[in-house]
Design goal:
By secondary structure, this protein is α/β, with parallel strands linked by helices. The protein is built from 15 helices and six strands. The radius of gyration is 19 Å and the shape is globular.
Length: 293
């Protein structure tokens, strides 16, 4: 199906907003996606929920709905209800310094990418060549799932709106988008080339496995899935994509939780491991417990 450039850009933005953290998953042995934060002076508990950002079914279970009922603020990675969200994302979509994909690949690889992108999106690469490669990769994810995509973030915001509560963010849009200037464009393009060369066969296998592990709340299995391939962006840049961001969030999570009972929704990959949010909160003296059905 062909799209206009405006429609294409909006679609990229909507997917990228909820995709950025999907590509990082780390380890936690308890099979739970929802965790209660208490102690350390908190008058009421807050909750943190590990999301998967695009899925075929983002139905919220009873434990998540109860936690939402018992909190008065929703905090996501970024404020997805911000009135300037789309305009700010549009400003950050393009490579810096006038760079285009042609500057980083051979003539043969450019022709391969051009054919691949045209087939998958209906848009010529000549028009899209200055967009950050990550955003082009993000555009492919709906085809990997082969279903109308949903997101837990949108479901969480819908409940929050019904309850007349606010949405905040742990990061600004600019902070999150800066990540894809810090990661070399050439490495981002290599990921896109991998998808083109095998017609997304590996991507489809990985996302299918990831979805199954998430549905089983198997965070350890998701961690092992990440470590299968040390050539991926996730593996090579996990400090920038995961660990450093986790550390920067802890003071904000603490501040929000002390002000009012808060529901945090972040990518499941941020929860676990030595530098995960759960471990870092515990090191700050909080009691962080799995919420089980």
């Amino acid at each position: 199906m062909k799209m206009s450039l405006t429609s294409f850009s909006r679609t990229i933005i909507n997917i990228a907003i909820v995709l950025i953290s999907t590509i990082t998953i780390a380890q936690e042995t308890n099979k739970s996606l929802l965790w209660k934060i208490s102690g350390n002076g908190l008058e009421q508990p807050s909750y943190i929920f590990g999301t998967i950002h695009i899925t075929c079914d983002a139905t919220l279970d009873k434990t998540v709905k109860t936690a939402l009922d018992n909190t008065s603020l929703l905090v996501l990675e970024i404020d997805m209800d911000h009135p300037e969200l789309q305009s700010k994302m549009m400003q950050e979509m393009y490579m810096k310094n006038g760079k285009t994909i042609k500057d980083f690949v051979s003539k043969e690889d450019y022709q391969l990418l051009s054919s691949f992108i045209k087939t998958q999106t209906g848009m010529p690469l000549e028009v899209l060549g200055n967009i950050k490669p990550f955003f082009l990769s993000a555009m492919l994810y709906p085809k990997l799932l082969q279903c109308p995509i949903q997101s837990f973030e949108n479901k969480l915001m819908a409940v929050t709106k019904e309850q007349n509560e606010n949405v905040e963010g742990l990061e600004t849009i600019e902070q999150q988008m800066k990540l894809f200037d810090d990661i070399p464009y050439k490495d981002q393009i290599e990921e896109l080339l991998k998808s083109a060369k095998d017609s997304m066969a590996k991507d489809k296998a990985n996302i299918t496995e990831m979805m199954n592990l998430y549905e089983n709340k198997d965070l350890e299995g998701l961690h092992n899935l990440l470590l299968k391939d040390n050539s991926t962006l996730t593996y090579k840049y996990q400090d920038q994509m995961l660990n450093e961001r986790n550390k920067s969030w802890i003071s904000k999570i603490s501040s929000y939780s002390k002000a009012q009972p808060t529901f945090f929704g972040v990518g499941a990959g941020h929860l676990s491991g030595e530098n995960g949010v759960i471990s870092l909160l515990r090191k700050q003296g909080y009691l962080v417990e799995a919420v089980l059905p």
